[in-house]
């Protein structure tokens, strides 16, 4: 009988957060004026599907402030938790960090704020030196082109000076060890029907 291994979302395991923090730490010396935690966006309608009750998601202003029973499957809540936990590990104060969402397509409402809009507005506000921490586990078009090239152009066009993009985890040994630990500890095996 074939089996499938299902691994739960890994937004908060300490081994994952430690691996990511180790990659980010060198970019924070000295601490920049702003650290952007950029996650892949999703249409709001997709995020709402994680709330079958319809009484939590986007209904309460702080619906994603903490992960709990009502939103444990919510992608946005998981993103905010990852950013907060990483920032705490790295010593980035709340007033120096922003969470944003990238890679929008189409006209439907997507998770906000959009990374490009945040980069432009923060640069116009006078922030000159910033670091962007992509959530992607491997570098791809979204990190190499959308952030490192287009994001940097938007940053400079609006008055920003230095925007460093932290590389994704890629083949980092700490990340590989974290993935192995997550797979062993948190996975569930499902038999084929």
Overall outline: globular
CATH structural architecture: 3-Layer(aba) Sandwich
What ranges have pLDDT less than 50 throughout 5 or more consecutive residues?
A: none
What characterizes the major β-sheet? 4 strands, parallel
- Ends apart, CA distance between termini: 9 Å
Name of the top-level CATH class: Alpha Beta
CATH topology: Rossmann fold
Number of domains: 1
| SSE class | alpha/beta
On the 0 to 100 scale, the average pLDDT is: 93
Helix content: 25-40%
> Whole-number radius of gyration?
18 Å
Number of helices: 6
User: Reading side by side through the largest sheet, how are the strands ordered?
Assistant: 3-2-4-5
Topology of this structure?
Layout: E1 3-6, H1 14-24, E2 34-40, H2 44-48, H3 75-90, E3 97-102, H4 115-124, E4 129-134, H5 141-157, E5 162-165, H6 173-186, E6 188-191
Parallel strand pairs: 2-3, 2-4, 4-5
Antiparallel strand pairs: 1-6
Helix pairs in contact: 1-3, 1-6, 4-5
Can you give me a brief rundown of this structure?
The chain has helices at 14-24, 44-48, 75-90, 115-124, 141-157, 173-186, and strands at 3-6, 34-40, 97-102, 129-134, 162-165, 188-191. The protein is of the alpha/beta class and 193 residues long. The mean pLDDT is 93.
């Amino acid at each position: 009988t074939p089996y499938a291994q299902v691994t739960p979302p890994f937004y908060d395991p300490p081994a994952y957060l430690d691996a990511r923090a180790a990659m980010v730490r060198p970019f924070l010396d000295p601490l920049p004026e702003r650290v952007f935690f950029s996650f892949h966006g999703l249409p709001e309608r997709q995020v709402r599907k994680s709330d079958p009750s319809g009484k939590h998601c986007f209904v309460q202003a702080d619906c994603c402030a903490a992960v709990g029973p009502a939103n444990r499957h919510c992608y946005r809540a998981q993103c905010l938790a990852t950013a907060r936990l990483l920032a705490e590990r790295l010593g980035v104060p709340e007033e120096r960090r922003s969470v944003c969402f990238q890679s929008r397509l189409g006209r439907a409402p997507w998770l906000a704020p959009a990374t490009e809009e945040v980069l432009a507005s923060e640069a116009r506000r006078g922030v000159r030196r910033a670091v962007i921490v992509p959530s992607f586990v491997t570098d791809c078009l979204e990190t190499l082109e959308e952030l490192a090239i287009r994001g940097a152009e938007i940053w400079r066009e609006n008055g920003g000076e230095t925007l460093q993009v932290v590389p994704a985890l890629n083949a980092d040994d700490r990340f590989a060890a974290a993935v192995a630990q997550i797979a062993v500890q948190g996975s569930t095996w499902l038999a084929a029907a």
